[in-house]
Amino acid sequence: MMLTTTPSIPGYRVIRVIGVVMGMSVRTRGMLGRFLAGIEAVLGGRSEAYIAELKKAREEALEDLERSARALGANAVVGIDFETAEVLEGFIVVTATGTAVVVEPEQRGS
Known about the structure:
By secondary structure, the protein is of the alpha+beta class. The chain is built from 2 helices and 4 strands; from the N terminus they run E-E-H-H-E-E.
């Protein structure tokens, strides 16, 4: 499965647009994780605890998006966009949306 944030894939042409697909991940830090993140916040600088959680959430959302696209018969998703939000205290929500398509390699020279 090809996944891209661009509207097209060089060397491939879209032969069928299936539709919009979405993947989502909701993650939370446990009590200890929030405590450590709080210490990082007090000390200032880069919060490795939250960066790690955001990376995990992004990867999970992308995997969910890919599963959704495969279930519809797609072999690629183009135009992927990510949205990140925090709901309640400490819950990170990452949503990935894109267009599920079927692509095939372009013909080279005739």
